[in-house]
Amino acid sequence: MTAILSPAIKNYDWGDFTALPDFIGAPRDAKPWAELWFGTHPDGQATLQTGQGKVALKDVVGELSFLVKLIGVAKPLSIQTHPTSAQALAGFERENSLGIDRTAFNRVYRDKTSKPELLCALSDFEMLCGFAPVNESLARAEQNGWLELARHLKLTGIEKTVRWALEEKAHKTPTNLPQHLRKVAELYPNSGGLLVALLMNYVVLKPGDAVYLDPGNVHSYLGGVAVEVMSSSDNVMRAAFTQKHIDLNEFFATASFESRAALMVSPSSPTGDEVNYQIDSAPFTVQRITVNDYMSLTAQSEIELYLCVQGQSGVLRQGQACVLRKHETLKLSGPSVVFRIHEK
């Protein structure tokens, strides 16, 4: 019998009080539900029920190299980025040598792993992702009267402008803010992060749309519900819009300041019911399966994780996940939608 996973629940302040509980059919508990972790990372391990009682997923299948999350965003996440593998390893060992406890508030590198991410929207999903072209940001700044921002951008470029915005404290909330930043400004008035946000690409995903965030990509989520698939890591370099630890030195050491559009992932369809989110550089494979009738899936990889995001599909209902070992079979039924994730 297929064992259903119980995810680790993360109640961060940017979470939604209703979206995730309602999504998985759990009672609301007056806490902001931000993330549900389906994986084996030590900061949030999924569990499953066995004949011996509830056990950690890690004790049954070993360490997973990937982590799957359901996220519900009601308030902006921090402006943040993630390290490369080399940066993560060096940073983890450096903080160990300094004697910083792995779970300490001021710990930046909580593991040795990079954190590339694929985000697939389950609702309309708003985010800031990467820096817009300098000429576009400059024209927008001059048009809206953000003259100090325009002056810095024209004279020093993006990276030094971002450094000025984050390191200087004497800022005032800009006027004429775009609609997507007005709520942010209410939460974080006079923050230099608002000036940084004005230089970034504003992206709205529709359900099924996906974006890939490689190491160094500066981003912030603003609102919505989504599936996130990433390497099993919790390394985050935060710069603004948060009550969590901010480390500007590590943010600038790991962030990319190139002007680039968000890396939208155009899914391929090997069959009408299967959609692959193909990213050559990603260490994981993500497939979205639309189940219209009955179907049987057999795991081809050593460990595969299946997450139902719509309907009831065999033993899985919306918001539930399970894992299969190689050659094990899962019977699905429709109408439903199921994500299938495994290591490449």
Q: What would you call the structural class?
A: alpha+beta
Distance separating the two termini: 26 Å
Q: Which parts are unreliable, with pLDDT below 50 for 5 consecutive residues or more?
A: none
Radius of gyration: 21 Å
The CATH C-level class name of the largest domain: Mainly Beta
SS element count, helices: 8
Integer tally of domains? 2
The CATH architecture category of the largest domain equals Sandwich
Mean pLDDT: 95
- The dominant shape is globular
Helix content: 10-25%
Say how many strands there are.
Answer: 23
Give the biggest beta sheet.
9 strands, antiparallel
Describe the structure.
By secondary structure, the chain is of the alpha+beta class. The protein has helices spanning 19-24, 57-61, 85-97, 134-144, 147-167, 179-187, 192-197, 248-254, and strands at 5-6, 8-10, 35-38, 47-50, 53-56, 66-73, 79-81, 117-121, 125-131, 200-205, 210-213, 219-231, 237-240, 263-264, 268-271, 274-277, 284-291, 294-298, 303-313, 316-317, 321-325, 329-333, 336-343. Strands 2, 3, 6, 8, 9, 10, 11, 12 and 14 form a nine-stranded antiparallel sheet that branches. A hairpin with a 6-residue loop joins strand 16 (274-277) and strand 17. Helix 4 packs across helix 5.
